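User: Could you check the structure of this?
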Amino acid sequence: MTTLPYPTVVLLGQPHALSRSMAHALLQAWENGASKCSEHSWQCLAPKANETWPQEALVYVLGQDWLDSDCDPAIALQISAWRERLSEQQRPYVMLYGKPSSQWLQLAESLKSIAPSSDWNWIATQNPWKPSARMRLKGCEQCDDPECEQALFAQLKRAS
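Assistant: Sure, the predicted structure tokens are below.
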């Protein structure tokens, strides 16, 4: 049974719905996993740009996925503003990059290293963005590229 309190986690993300949904998912995972074996409560917050958060909180900034082709400049500006604000306040923070599924795993690993006395295994096992076994990866037949389709048909003709 865990007797040590879990540190408060703050997620800063743009659009705000992303950080809010991740915070909500983390709280749901907490309810389903860790809260059953802990006598302490836990907070995971997703404040808006103008809101404050607890001074002792662990801060995570949800960065943009570098593979995203239509990055919104407003998102980059807000992330930059948070980083400047955190630097001015001399507050440590961790950047999480990629899609939400990989950000979730990065967060789990970071929390394990920053607060190793708390059991964080419940996060990695309850990733709501984890691709299901039923989801198929995009294949050649789904790309809608005419040149790709011609090459696929040419291969089929040669095979027959």
